[in-house]
Amino acid sequence: MKIKTCFFALLFFPFLSQADLSWKAGAAKTVITPAHSMWMAGYGSRRAPSTGKRTELFAKALVLEDGKGNRGLIVTLDLVGIERSLSGSI
After folding, report:
1. What is the count of structural domains for the chain?
2. How confident is the model at residue 15 (pLDDT cuts 50, 70, 90)?
3. What is the per-residue pLDDT across 40-90, written as a single tens digit (0 to 9) for each?
4. Between the CA of residue 66 and those of 17, 23, 76, 82, what are the distances in Å?
5. Average pLDDT for 23-49
6. DSSP per-residue string spanning 1-65
7. Is residue 5 in a domain?
8. Which H or E run contains 86?
9. 13-31 burial, b if ≥16 CB within 10 A, otherwise e?
10. Distance CA 24, CA 8 (A)
11. H or E stretch including 80?
12. What is d(CA 58, CA 20) in angstroms, rounded to the nearest whole number?
């Protein structure tokens, strides 16, 4: 881990003196694994609902804000897709 951090610092050090360091970032995640068995998309040959889980499913978000207050949001979901109404409200 120290090697990666040092490499990152050395790679970007020349730009730090010229960069606007007033950027802000925030990140969050939450588990969205269904509590009960259900039909899942992406399993075309499956003939029954899910029967358990190997890993949790997550929703994750990253928000970046520059020094002028402009914000950008990146959302990832461990899903095949979501309804247009949910996408629009996000």
Report:
1. 1
2. low
3. 887 778 888 988 889 999 999 999 999 899 999 999 999 888 889 988 887
4. 16, 4, 21, 29
5. 89
6. -HHHHHHHHHHHHHHHTTS-TT-EEEEEEEE---SS----TT-TT--S-----SS--EEEEEEEE
7. no
8. helix 84-89
9. eeeeeeeeeeeeeeeeeee
10. 19
11. none
12. 32
The residue count of the chain comes to: 90
Is 39 part of a structural domain of the chain?
A: yes
For the record, the structure tokens of 60 come out as 């994750």
By the 8 A CB rule, do 70 and 63 touch? no
**pTM above 0.85?**
no
Structure tokens at 24: 């802000």
Q: Which domain holds residue 65?
A: 21-89
Tell me whether residue 3 is in a domain: no
Residue 85 has what pLDDT?
Answer: 93
